[in-house]
Amino acid sequence: MDQTATTALADLVRRAQKGDEIAQRELIVAYQHRVAGFVFAMTNRSDYVEDLSQQVFIKMIRALDRLQAPAQFESWLFRLARNTCIDQLRRQKLRRIFLPFGDEHENIPEPPGAVDTEELDALRHALAQLRPQDRALLALVQEGRSHAEIAETLETSVAAVKARLHRAREHLREHYQPDHED
Amino acid sequence: MNTFANITNLTMKTENQAWRDLQMHASAQLRADFANRTLRIARGPAAAEWEQLHTHAATQLRPGFAARVLRAAREIPRRLTLSEQLVFGAATAAVCLLAVVYLHAHNARVENERNLAGWQQLAQEADELDQTL
Which of A14, A152, A175, B25 has the CA that lies 20 to 30 A from B10? Predict the structure, then answer.
C-alpha cells in the first residue's frame, strides 16, 4: 500500500472511530471480500463465510475506538478475523466432543467439486490438512501481511514466523494434489 | 552359427519389443497433462488458486452485507468476552461464598444463643433446687 493510500485509510478509520456510519460502511465494503476469503481459507466452509465475516465486522465496529494506531488498521482487522475463526473452530471442536451425535449437519464437509475447479478443491483439501494456526499464517501472507505484522498479530518473533511459515508451506505442498480423490 | 545369431537377434528383438510395450502401457497410464500437473504439484498452489478461493468466498456474501453488519452492530446486544465471562463467574462464585459464610455464621450464632439460654435456664433451675433443698 502506498503512502497516499495509507493516509487515506488512516483518515477513513479515524472518521469511523468517531462513529461516522458512512466511514464504517466504507471500511466494511472495502474489506468484506478479503475478510470473506480469509474466513473461507481458515474454516473451509462456505456456509460459515457470511456469519463469521459479519461477526468480524461487528467486533471491528465495537472495538474500533480502542484502536490506537489507525495506520495499523489492516493488521488489527485480520487479527480480529483470525481470532474469530480460531474461536469458532474451537467451539466446533468442543461441540463435537460434548455433542458427538448432535448437530451432525454442522460437521458435513462440502463435497469435492461442490465449490469450483479441481485446483481450488486441491487447495481447500491441502488447507484442511493443516493446523488452524498454520492456515491463518498462510492466509495472512496471502493478504499481503509482512512477517513483522504477522509476528505482531501472533505475538511472536519474526524468526519464529519465518520458521513456521516455511513449515506450513512445506505441509501445504505435501498435501496439494490437484487430482486427489477423497 | 548364422542360425544362432538369428535366434539371438530374434530374442533380443522380442525382449526390446516387450520393454517398449511395457513403457507404452506405463505411459498410457499417465494423464495427458502429466508434466503440467507434476510441475503444479511440485510448486504448490499458485496465486491463481488463492485468487479463486477468495473469489468463491466473496460470492458467499449476500448483497447488502455492509448494511446488515451495521444494523446488527446496533441491534444485537454485545456478547461478553471470555475474560468478562470469567470475571463474571468469579464474582458470582465470590458472592455465593460470602452468602454461605454469612448464613453459616448467622445460624451458628442463633444456635449458640439458644443453647446458652437453655443452659442458663438449667443453671437457674439447679440454683432454685439447691435453695429449696
Answer: B25
Cell 461516522, residue located: A20
- By C-alpha distance, the chain A residue nearest B47 is A142
Count CB pairs under 8 A between chains A and B: 108
For chain B, give me the number of helices (H) and strands (E)?
5, 0
The low-confidence residues of chain A, meaning pLDDT below 70, are 1, 100-116, 178-182
Judge contact between A55 and A84, C-beta under 8 A.
yes
Tens digits of per-residue pLDDT, B13-53? 777 888 788 888 887 887 777 777 766 776 777 788 888 88
Provide the shortest C-alpha distance from residue B38 to chain A (in Å).
9
Interface test with B, best of A20, A38, A40 (most B CBs within 10 A): A40
Cell numbers at B60, concatenated:
458467499
Give chain B positions within 8 Å (CB) of A176: 41, 44-45
CA atoms within 13 A on the CB side of A23: 16
The CB density around residue B11, as the number of other CB atoms within 10 Å, is: 10
- What does the alpha-carbon distance between residue B78 and residue A42 come to, in Å, rounded to a whole number? 24
**Extents of the domains making up chain B:** 34-77, 80-133
Instruction: State the cell numbers at B73.
Output: 452492530
CB-based contact, A66 to chain B, within 8 Å: no
Cβ <8 Å between A176 and B78: no
pLDDT at B1: 57
Q: What is the pLDDT of residues A50-96, one digit of tens each?
A: 999 999 999 999 899 899 888 889 889 999 999 999 998 888 878 77
pLDDT of residue B8: 72
CB contact under 8 A, B57 and A37: yes
pTM check: above 0.80 = no
- Minimum distance, in Å, between the CA of residue A77 and any CA atom of chain B: 15
C-alpha cell at A125: 483439501
